[in-house]
Amino acid sequence: MADLLFHEVLVPVLLIFAIMLPVVLTVAMFVYWERKVIGWMHVRMGPNKIGPLGLFQAFADVVKLLIKEVLVPTNANKFLFFLAPLLALIPALAAWAVVPFDQGMVLANVNAGVLYLLAMSSVGVYGIILAGWASNSRYALLGAMRSAAQVISYELAMGMALVCVLVLAGSLNLTAIVDAQAGPKGIFDWFWLPLLPVFVIYWISGVAETNRAPFDVAEGESEIVAGFHVEYSGSAFAIFFLAEYANMILISFLAAVLFMGGWLSPFPVSWGWIGHGSILWLFAKAFIFSFFFLWFRATFPRYRYDQIMRLGWKVFIPITIVWVLVAGCMKYFGWVTIGG
Amino acid sequence: MSAQLLQLICFYAFGAVAVASALMVITLRNSVHAVLSLVLTFFSVASIWLLAQAEFLAIALIVVYVGAVMVLFLFVVMMLDINLERMREGFIKYLPVGIIVAAVMLVEMLALIGVRAMHVMTMGPDPAAAAGMSNTAWLGQALYTRFLLPFEIAALILTVGLIAAVVLTLRHKPLTRRQNPGDQVRVSNRDRVRVVKMDAERPQESES
Fold first, then answer.
1. Interchain pair A80, B59: CB under 8 A
2. pLDDT higher than threshold 80 for residue B83
3. Residue B166 domain-assigned (yes or no)
4. CB contact under 8 A, B71 and A307
5. Could you tell me how many CB contacts below 8 A there are between chain A and chain B?
6. Which of A263, B102, B124, B199 is the most exposed place for a label (fewest CB within 10 A)?
7. How far apart are CA A40 and CA A101, in angstroms?
8. Which chain B residues are Cβ-neighbours of A80 within 8 angstroms?
9. Cα(first)–Cα(last) distance of chain A, in Å?
10. For residue B1, what pLDDT is reported?
11. Quick check: B35 and B73 in contact, CB under 8 A?
12. What transmembrane ranges does the database entry give (chain B) (predicted)?
């Protein structure tokens, strides 16, 4: 009994904390990094007053948000109003369960990992819709509608992109997908090369899924003030913030795992330690991808709503459907080598 | 406590949640709450399927129904402006009809269960486990080999339904103005601004 409790309850809970705490800490530092990077791109300093190089700015923000008053709008549906941030956060954190960090370093090595990720990302939209509805506010409802339509549309393109990956890898298991990308040619064995258009579409859909610039019509500060979370303040707002950034980092990790070889090294094995796969390679790749999020935000103007829909439905989905066929041909005729 | 017992407890817990939330779907006054109860029902059923090792079906249920169908449902219900007083008025009036429909359905279902119970069917071993594959892999293999034709026919019927729905709701209004993105992209500065060459002019001296 005690043994069972230890192995089936205590160890998984500790492992969950070992993933969750770094994720939350990374979100805090990522917000600081975002403000710094965007500052540099705007030829500003970014936060530099609190702590060395402004490093404690993130923690100051967290403390500020947590001690602020949480306001509930008049006639808001109180139960759903407080349920919504949790519904946004839970899937964002739960999705991390299947992310493999290194060979065998994964919390839940499930066979249907890619499907699980799709399920989690599609559940996350409830938080946004309910936040918009329960706030009893016009702007919030508009933001929620835009966001829901956008997330559903881009989920299709993203799902088709994932289908291409799993056709090539022949498995839904994320560890098996990384293993399928191993090979003597290093970087040219990874899936970004045979699936280049799909890789680009996956990444852009990921940006759209997380409602980030240039697809941030759901928040659109200049049109609908802040969209679905306009009525949220203090810690309730902080939870939405945490969910959004955790999702961004998750999408970055998944782009690295699905298309850029996960923990595999781009260099040949003969180069010593630098040629061996390790968790540091995964972190480096995910860092580069998460940097793209910030780069996009500082560079591109916001898409118009109808342009977003057109891009998703009329451009991305047809391309991904065609590429599913191409990927099938690649696999069937052996145009690409799978596995080392 | 053995793992089997734990599974049994989980099964009954998920089952109870599924039944309770299904009851809430039809008893709750607030329609948004009712839709959310339906979501909870789907979730509980998916959990039960996971317990039965039908992982693909469970996750597909969540992706398709919870992730897409119910979101659209919620969308529509949120946009409805329902007068709750009016809804309560109709309750007594429609109660007899509802009871009759419910009774007929109950009798039909009991008859079906009775007929099925006469032919005793024993379930074989889990085919996926027997083949030594994961549930998802086995399902894919079966669908694309043994059941390829029915699978493709089902896909075709769904596509026809999809196109029919689009055609039924597509109305060309004569007054709609459309933007052609191709034209918008191809536009050049000469279409918008005309640069005129003219001689410099001296400012005229103002009369004072």
1. no
2. no
3. yes
4. no
5. 67
6. B199
7. 31
8. 32-33, 36
9. 43
10. 56
11. yes
12. 6-28, 35-52, 58-82, 94-115, 147-170
Q: Is residue B191 part of a domain?
A: no
Of B68, B78, B181, the CB nearest to A152: B68
Distance from CA of B195 to the nearest CA of A (A): 28
Residue A221 DSSP symbol: H
Shared-domain flag, residues B78 and B143: no
Structural domain contains residue B137 = yes
Range of the domain at B27: 9-84
Same domain, yes or no: B138 and B77: no
ipTM of the complex: 0.80
CA angle, residues A264, A268, A270, in degrees to nearest 5: 120
Residues B80 and B18 in one domain: yes
Where are chain A's structural domains?
Answer: 1-67, 72-333
Residue A107's nearest CA partner among A116, A98, A115 is A98
Query: A210: which 2 tokens?
Result: 């997380």
Number of domains in chain B: 2
A-chain CB neighbours of B179 within 8 Å are: 306
In terms of phi and psi (left: phi > 0; alpha: psi -120 to 50; beta: otherwise), the region of A77 is: beta
- Nearest-angstrom CA–CA distance, A129 and A90: 15
From B205's Cα to the closest Cα of chain A, the distance in A is 46
Average pLDDT, chain B: 84
Which positions of chain A have pLDDT values less than 70?
A: 1, 220-222, 339-340
pLDDT of residue B87: 61
Which pLDDT score, from 0 to 100, does residue A147 have?
Answer: 83
In sequence order, what are the beta bridge partners of A102? A105
Nearest to B181 among A133, A152, A310 (CB): A310
User: Which residue in B59, B72, B135 is closest to A116 by CB distance?
Assistant: B59
Interface of B with A in 27-46 (CB under 8 A): 30, 32-33, 36, 39
CB burial of B101-116 (b: ≥16 within 10 Å; e: otherwise) equals eeeeeeeeeeeeeeee
Per DSSP, the three-state class of B48 is: helix
Q: Which of A172, A173, A307, A321 best probes binding to B when mutated, by most B CB atoms within 10 angstroms? A: A172
Backbone φ, ψ for residue A251 (5° rounding): -60, -40
State whether the Cα torsion A254-A255-A259-A264 is positive or negative.
negative
Task: Report pLDDT for B84.
Answer: 59
Q: Is residue B152 part of a domain?
A: yes
How near does any CA of chain B get to the CA of A93, in Å?
Answer: 17
